[in-house]
Each structure stands twice: as C-alpha cells, then as structure tokens.
Amino acid sequence: MIAQEKILKKLSVSILAGSSIESYNYTESPVSLSFIFGLGTAGLSRFEISLGEIEIGNSFDVQLDSSELQPYFGPLFTHLRAALSLLIIPDQIFLHFELTEIAETEPREVVTALAGMQKHGSCSGDCDCGCS
C-alpha cells in the first residue's frame, strides 16, 4: 500500500524508545500510537512519509536529536510524547516503529480529529508542543 492509499486511514504503530539502538530503555515494552494518517495541514510529516513506504508488519528505526523530534513528527509530536510518557526529552533518542494496523475511519472521527487540531493550534505554544 502506498502512502496515497493510507490517507485518512487510522494507522497504529508499536513503538520502542531508548538511549541506544541496543537498549530501548525508555519503554519497558512496546507502546501503541494510533492516528489518522495525512490529517496535518502542512502536508505529511517525515514520520508519516516513512510509514507511507512500508506495509503492515514492517518496521524502521530512527535516531534523532531532541531538536529534530518536533520537525520529524510534526503535529503528531505531542501524541508521541504522551504515548512514551516523556516528561523530559533526552538529548538523543532511538526509536523503533512497527506498523501494526491500517483501519478505515468514520467521517466523524476525521471531523473530530480536525476540530481537535484547530483547538490545539490555538494554544499559542502554552502546551509546550512547539506549535506556536
């Protein structure tokens, strides 16, 4: 499935995070993140582009400096941070992602997610997500 076929589908990924490629010590076990693919108004994030190139069951790894996290994940950064329960962002993080599910979305799910993005975008940066 190419990225275009995933647009507005609900994708679920399993995530491991750690201080090195050998040690995913920030997560005791894989955590799940689900989101509607391609919903951002600024186009696909680099994270979504990477997911758009793989099939269910495939995985990929990334190594990012703390300053690269928000640009890499775009509007999904706050969701990732919440899923990983990261109160403090490390200087460098290693992440392993596996695409676990692609599901159809209901129109109301898309509308609700869009409304949430509009509300979130008006926070003027008070949420510490970097959206300002």
* Category by helix and strand content: alpha+beta
| Shape label | globular
CATH class category name: Alpha Beta
Taking all Cα atoms into account, the compactness measure Rg is 14 Å
CATH architecture: Roll
Describe how the helices and strands are arranged.
Layout: H1 3-6, E1 10-18, E2 31-36, H2 46-52, E3 59-65, H3 66-73, H4 77-84, E4 92-103, H5 107-121
Antiparallel strand pairs: 1-2, 1-4, 3-4
Please describe what this structure looks like.
The chain is α+β, with helices and mostly antiparallel strands. The protein has one domain (3-121): Roll (Chitinase A, domain 3), CATH 3.10.50.40. It has five helices and four strands. Strands 2-1-4-3 form a four-stranded antiparallel β-sheet.
In short:
This protein has helices at residues 3-6, 46-52, 66-73, 77-84, 107-121; strands spanning 10-18, 31-36, 59-65, 92-103. With 132 residues, the protein is of the alpha+beta class.
Short key terms for the protein model shown above:
single chain, 132 residues, alpha+beta, Chitinase A, domain 3, four-stranded antiparallel β-sheet, 5 helices, 32% helix, 26% strand, disordered C terminus
